[in-house]
Amino acid sequence: MADKITLTITRRRLTEILIGLVSLFLTAGVAAAILKYLWPQTESAGTTSEVKIASVDEVPAGSAKNFVFNGKAAVLLHMPAGFRAFGRVCTHLGCISYWKSDESVIYCPCHIGKYDPNTGAVLSGPPPSPLPAIDIAVREGVVYALKWKDPDYVRSISFYAGAA
Ligand code: FES
Predict the structure, then answer these.
(1) Domain membership flag for residue 1
(2) Which domain holds residue 66?
């Protein structure tokens, strides 16, 4: 014959258990956020996150096409030496730069920063460092963005947080 088991729990004890469970879940969530911050995902760093930018015909010599790469504004340039691609987020204060064909520079309008369209190097103005370059490939008449040329450099630029 089965004995009847009676479980008595006070309201105070039930409240303590519920508060304990809520605290446990909150603590686990905070711990997960801290761990994610300390060990960020690096799946795009140095790996291929290929993006189709344009067909070769869309970007004749001397012109450019804007696109988005890893969530950041970027530009494909067709220079005399070939195609080049860079992030467009200015390394000074994060404004969006653009191709300025009349001066043949990548131009940031916020503080008149100018970048070399062949290398991304700073030509003039306050930007402290070059625009990050993007490796590209041309296959069957289509230009693809492959990956940041230097993911460590991209990670070092605060305005590119999460892009590499
Ligand atoms: S934000 Fe580009 S030059 Fe200042």
Answers:
(1) no
(2) 51-160
Q: Are residues 28 and 83 in the same domain?
A: no
Judge if 68 and 20 occupy the same domain: no
User: Which of 108, 159, 160 gets mutated to test ligand 1 (max ligand atoms within 8 A of its CB)?
Assistant: 108
131 within domain boundaries = yes
Whole-model pTM: value is 0.72
Cβ < 6 Å from ligand 1: which residues? 90, 92-93, 95, 108, 110-111, 113, 125-127
First to last CA, the chain: 67
The number of beta carbons lying within 10 Å of the beta carbon of residue 82 is 11
Q: Please tell me the predicted confidence (pLDDT) of residue 16.
A: 85
Structure tokens at 104: 């043949």
For residues 65 and 132, membership in a common domain is answered with: yes
Q: pLDDT value at position 42? A: 47
Decide if 55 is inside a domain.
yes
Tokens of 129: 């460092």
pLDDT tens digits, residue range 25-79?
Answer: 777 777 766 666 555 544 444 455 799 999 999 999 999 999 999 999 999 999 9
Contact of 81 with 118, CB cutoff 8 Å: yes
